[in-house]
């Protein structure tokens, strides 16, 4: 390559390049414009590489939503759903296990991860150097011209070097990640060694292509600083668009009607799915909705849905509780089913399920006692579940990932999957006025911080990813630390919550993916920003957090005064309603069937992990995002006003502005730009009032009815 008058001439390729640079805070932006002198005769792609010298496997490699600490774990070719139980003598202390997903090798001197931008929550890759206390990141755009970009991390320990590469078109040169029926006959499973079918592009004479890259370097910083800086830098090149389409209330009532129609069983409980021939769709504790889906109806409804919520609680604690105090993970049609695999005994439990269940049941107990409902039926069973968590922690110093309820032995450990127990036990300490529960909650909080948060990796929350990194553990840990701070007012828990939040937000899509023009997502005008990548194995984003509203972010704002947490919550909550299938606008699926009204599917497919034909498409079926949407309506105000700082934040699909601030009131002009009549919730707050927004605050919110296209003036008082 020769340089002539700022123009780079390539001797081997029929093109030349102009490179312009722009200084950024702690970084550099490069715009590389390629112009083709003649038609290309073979497919080509172009790359920009950030080189790292003195490379060491201890460096923390990040590719948001896909790779955490290089995914350097024991990787095994397990069929789906994977369940790997280590030898008896090391059930809860040996190395984490992942399936065959993209990862850097623990032992080999050379290894590589190659992804397309759509495989990640943000189009960037980088690393943190613990010894040098520095962080470096290569950021690009997810699309360049008509082509998706690609990111590759290539390490060579022999030379002490690693390359972080941005390329267009993105080409995974040898292998691509594929999840499905394998051609080698080894079953339905994830496989990081599947052959790649990516190719470069043919260019015509006169074609131009501009590849934009940003390189950031920060020094000296800590690992928590690194995540915070990455989150601050990731929107440098691509900012999501503002949009309004489906109001919270429209989405909520559609799902509520669907629950009335299809989700209440003859046995008297709210199911997690609609096909009751399958136990997994009848009852699963916590996780995807069991015992959580009753909570919104208890708060919002005054008749049938509330009575069914109470019936659900009665069913759980009269029929589903093991004598040890634990609640069975799965049940259907009179039969208990063990977690982790069909061959497991019914007493095998994914501990996360009971942690989630306990947290939300306690919220419901608070509501019942606050509203003079009898809680006599529930208090002893719930206390028995709390005591089971205490016993497990006292025996092992951790909660593990899977246990046997009958023997209370950890079957598989090394996971942050049960971290919601921290928040649940903190809440239990308030409800039962039990200092032992708070003591265990705080000790568990320290355990998870030192073993997971501090190392920048939370893992193992979903029951079918082994111990892979995932977003669900990160957001559950955030929720727990926020609850622990709310309970104790100890600043250490707020500090841990803020650190955890930065890890969690790396899983949230920071940009609007350009879906293929023919795809269902493109035709529906879907905005991917604010969706949340599930985990490093199941390579799709999803509507919402599994299974939370994200109101911990609202509380973080209240505790810190930092408005970025309101913006983070807006991204997640605002994204949700567009994925609800509505009677007026049903969602078409790959099966060529429309999702019924009130259904939500968990797939937001920006990755080709299940085949290129699935990008921008949805699958048929009722999934857990419905519960996240229900929670969002009762826990995330449509419009939030903080009188302390005179802050207005709109979360719902309406427009709102302040026309006048007064000492104890605010005048608002609100407009509904959508095609649907709605009811908007408004929360008037003073963030320094620590008792105003705690366990249940739905009744503290004012409601305003807005017809489609209507504009109103309202006064909101403190």
From TrEMBL:
<dbReference type="GO" id="GO:0005975">
    <property type="term" value="P:carbohydrate metabolic process"/>
</dbReference>
<dbReference type="InterPro" id="IPR008928">
    <property type="entry name" value="6-hairpin_glycosidase_sf"/>
</dbReference>
<protein>
    <submittedName>
        <fullName>Uncharacterized protein</fullName>
    </submittedName>
</protein>
């Amino acid at each position: 390559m020769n340089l002539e008058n700022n123009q780079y001439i390539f001797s081997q390729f029929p093109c030349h390049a102009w490179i312009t640079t722009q200084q950024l805070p702690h970084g550099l932006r490069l715009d590389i414009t390629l112009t083709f002198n003649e038609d290309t005769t073979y497919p080509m792609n172009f790359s920009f590489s950030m080189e790292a010298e003195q490379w060491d496997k201890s460096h923390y490699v990040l590719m948001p939503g896909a790779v955490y600490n290089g995914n350097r774990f024991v990787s095994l070719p397990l069929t789906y759903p994977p369940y790997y139980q280590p030898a008896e003598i090391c059930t809860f202390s040996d190395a984490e296990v992942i399936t065959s997903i993209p990862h850097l090798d623990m032992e080999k001197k050379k290894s590589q991860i190659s992804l397309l931008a759509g495989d990640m929550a943000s189009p960037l890759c980088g690393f943190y150097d613990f010894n040098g206390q520095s962080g470096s990141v290569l950021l690009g755009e997810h699309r360049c011209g008509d082509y998706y970009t690609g990111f590759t991390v290539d390490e060579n320990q022999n030379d002490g070097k690693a390359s972080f590469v941005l390329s267009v078109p993105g080409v995974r040169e040898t292998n691509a990640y594929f999840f499905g029926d394998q051609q080698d006959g080894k079953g339905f499973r994830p496989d990081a060694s599947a052959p790649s079918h990516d190719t470069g592009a043919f260019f015509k004479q006169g074609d131009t292509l501009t590849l934009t890259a940003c390189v950031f370097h920060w020094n000296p910083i800590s690992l928590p600083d690194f995540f915070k800086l990455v989150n601050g830098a990731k929107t440098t090149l691509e900012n999501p668009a503002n949009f309004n389409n489906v109001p919270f209330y429209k989405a909520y009532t559609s799902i509520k009607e669907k629950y009335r129609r299809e989700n209440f069983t003859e046995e008297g409980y709210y199911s997690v799915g609609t096909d009751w021939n399958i136990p997994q769709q009848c009852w699963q504790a916590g996780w995807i909705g069991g015992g959580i889906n009753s909570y919104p109806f208890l708060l919002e409804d005054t008749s049938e849905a509330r009575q069914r919520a109470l019936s659900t609680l009665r069913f759980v604690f009269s029929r589903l509780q093991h004598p040890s105090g634990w609640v069975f993970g799965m049940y259907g049609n009179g039969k208990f089913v063990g977690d982790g695999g069909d061959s497991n005994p019914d007493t095998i439990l994914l501990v996360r399920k009971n942690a989630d269940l306990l947290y939300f049941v306690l919220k419901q107990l608070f509501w019942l006692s606050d509203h003079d409902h009898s809680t006599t039926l529930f208090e002893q069973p719930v206390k028995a579940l709390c005591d089971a968590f205490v016993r497990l922690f006292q025996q092992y110093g951790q909660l593990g990932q899977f246990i046997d309820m009958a023997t209370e032995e950890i079957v598989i450990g090394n996971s942050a999957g049960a971290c919601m127990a921290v928040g649940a036990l903190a809440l239990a300490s308030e409800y039962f006025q039990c200092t032992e529960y708070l003591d265990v909650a705080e000790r568990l909080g320290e355990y998870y911080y030192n073993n997971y948060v501090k190392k920048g990796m939370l893992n193992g929350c979903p029951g079918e990813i082994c111990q892979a990194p995932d977003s669900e553990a990160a957001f559950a840990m955030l929720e727990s630390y926020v609850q622990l701070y709310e309970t104790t007012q100890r600043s250490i828990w707020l500090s841990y919550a803020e650190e955890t939040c930065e890890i969690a937000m790396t899983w949230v899509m920071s940009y609007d993916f350009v879906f293929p023009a023919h795809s269902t997502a493109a035709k529906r005008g879907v905005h991917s920003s604010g969706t949340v990548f599930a985990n490093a194995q199941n390579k799709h984003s999803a509507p919402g957090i599994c299974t939370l509203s994200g109101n911990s972010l609202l509380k973080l704002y209240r505790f810190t005064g930092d408005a970025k947490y309101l913006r983070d919550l807006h991204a997640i909550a605002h994204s949700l309603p567009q994925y609800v299938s509505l009677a007026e606008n049903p969602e078409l699926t790959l099966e060529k069937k429309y999702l019924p009204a009130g259904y939500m599917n968990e797939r937001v497919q920006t990755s080709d992990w299940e085949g290129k034909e699935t990008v921008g498409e949805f699958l048929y079926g009722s999934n857990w995002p419905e519960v996240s949407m229900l929670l969002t309506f009762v826990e995330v105000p449509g419009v939030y006003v903080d009188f302390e700082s005179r802050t207005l934040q709109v979360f719902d699909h309406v427009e709102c502005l302040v026309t006048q601030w007064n000492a104890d009131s605010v005048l608002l002009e609100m407009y509904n730009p959508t095609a649907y009549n709605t009811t908007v919730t408004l929360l008037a707050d003073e963030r320094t009032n620590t008792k105003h927004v705690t366990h249940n605050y739905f009744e503290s919110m004012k409601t305003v009815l807005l017809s489609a296209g209507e504009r109103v003036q309202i006064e909101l008082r403190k």
